[in-house]
Amino acid sequence: MSDTWPAGGDLVVQFAHQSYHFDERFALRGSEFQHFQTWTPEETADRIRSANMLVLSGFWGPELLDRATRLRFIQVCAAGYERFDLAALAARGIRLANARGSNRYAVSEHAIAMILAFTRQLHIARDNQRQGCWRGMVSEPAEREDEVHGKTLLVYGLGTIGARVAALAKALGMEVIGVKREIGAHSGDADEVVAPADFPAMLPRADFVVLTCPLTPQTEGLIGAAALAAMRPGAYLVNVARGGCVDQGALVAALRRGAIAGAALDTVQQEPLAADSPLWGMENVIITPHTAGETRRYEDNVLDILVENLDRLRRGETRLLNEIV
pTM (2 decimals)? Predict the structure, then answer.
């Protein structure tokens, strides 16, 4: 490592999260580095002075910067890093990398699971089960379960997650249209790839619209009244991106008037979802509490990135995996 980095056992890694057992999993790897975990924001702030490396996401706040006098590297244990002041970190020589790709399997599978749940009406079946209701055969074809084979999927964001959603959808026999800023950079499974400017024109073709994009000024409110009006009445929206990508008020209005068939939401604009939100009681809505990326493997997926970056720093490499600053 460079002269600014402690060597070997002098380097201290602090893990900070209320739920993830990073320190426990890291210990099993037999690392030479000192490490510990804090479980609350208060404990994190109290002990951050001893850390050279910090692994966290939600506990970070700008007030920690003045306390973190030894800090040289932050490994964000999530893909999003909006809460970090990148310019302030760079001014203090603190590098930052995110965990992009660590949840690509989990989130893509979650998106497909939501599509299959709507198609096979599993949410309705579960409600009937709780009521002890054995539903009889349905004579009206439009009210029966459906098949995804031959349906069209529109994916906004063909990054690591979106590309795998496309691959899984193709395995199920779906036609896939992808939206990507750099069209020529995609070599995956989408049948057709278009630029973001062409997204509105693709909406009437889709049976399912899946959002797997980051929240940026360009994607904030991406699905609003105009986009919902352009979708087919029988189409479904699946959001495993960020809550801010969807205008929640416009979505509720569209669902109430039957403009689209339903929505599956892993993220919402304000989390947790307000107790009085009409989304809770809508039969054609499936809600999961921002858990698409959470699996039994999550800690190890993030630690794989951290360990790779530790190795790169040890070797004095200038570029880190998923480096942002």
Answer: 0.93
